[in-house]
Amino acid sequence: MDIMLFHSIYGLRPAVSAAADRLRAAGHEVWTPDLFEGRVYDSVEDGRAYKDEVGVDELLKRAILAAAPLSERGLVYGGFSFGAAVAQNLALGDEKARGLLLLHGTSDIAENATADGLPVQLHVADPDAFEPHDWLTAWYLQMGKAGADVEVHRYPGAGHLYTDPELPDYDEEAAEQTWRVALGFLDSIDEG
C-alpha cells in the first residue's frame, strides 16, 4: 500500500516519522512531505501563524505537488490534525485514491464532492475541542452523502493529538489502539 502522510500544524515532527516507520514495518510505502519547508513549531499558535502567513492555498499546492507524481499508484492519503484536513482534500479530489486515514482531524466538504466507495477511517479524541460532536456528526453525514464508506473511532479522555508522545495530549493506550485499528484498516484496503 502506498501512503501519503501529512504532518500536523506543528510541522514534520519526530512523531510523524515514527508513524511512517510503523507503517513501513507493516509493509507499506510511506511518504511524509514537509509542507512547512523545515519549520517545526512548539505551539499550535506558532504553527497556525505560519499556516496563515503562507496561506492554505499555497500549502494545498505543496501537498498536491508532493502527491502528484505518485497519484497514479492509487494512494491512501492520511494525516494528523491539520494534515488530516489536507489529506481529506486531496483524497476527495483524486479519483484514484484508495483510502483516507484521518488522525485527529477533518475538513469541510464541498457540496459536489464525490467519494464513491472510498474507505475512510477517522480517529479522534472524545471530546475534542477542535472536532466537536456537532461538527463530526455533520461531517459524517456529508461524507456519507458523497459516497464514502466511513468509520469513526472515538477515544474518551484522550487529548487532541494523543498519538504524539512529545505532546501533553499523548495517551499511550489510545495511541496503540489507534495504530492497531488503522493497520487493520490499511490491510482491508490492500486486500480489497
Characterization of this structure:
The protein is built from six helices and six strands. The mean pLDDT is 96. 42% of the residues lie in helices and 18% in strands. It has a single domain, classed as 3-Layer(aba) Sandwich (Rossmann fold), CATH 3.40.50.1820. By secondary structure, it is of the alpha/beta class. α3 crosses α4. A six-stranded parallel sheet has the order 2-1-3-4-5-6, sandwiched between helices.
Q: Helices, strands, pairings?
A:
Blueprint: E1 2-6, H1 14-25, E2 29-31, H2 44-54, H3 56-67, E3 76-80, H4 82-92, E4 99-103, E5 119-126, H5 133-146, E6 149-156, H6 172-191
Parallel strand pairs: 1-2, 1-3, 3-4, 4-5, 5-6
Helix pairs in contact: 3-4
Here the CATH topology equals Rossmann fold
Give the SSE order as H and E letters. Answer: EHEHHEHEEHEH
Give the DSSP E fraction (strand runs of 2 or more residues): 15-25%
Strands, total number: 6
* Helicity, as a percent range: 40-55%
Return Rg in Å. Answer: 15 Å
Show unreliable segments. Answer: none
Named CATH architecture: 3-Layer(aba) Sandwich
Major beta sheet summary: 6 strands, parallel
Strand arrangement in the largest pleated sheet? 2-1-3-4-5-6
Text of the CATH class: Alpha Beta
Q: What structural class should be given to the helix and strand makeup?
A: alpha/beta
Count of helical stretches? 6
What is the domain total for the residues?
1
Rounded average pLDDT: 96
CATH superfamily: Alpha/Beta hydrolase fold, catalytic domain
Described by the principal axes of the CA atoms, the overall outline is: globular
Q: What is the CA–CA distance across the termini?
A: 11 Å
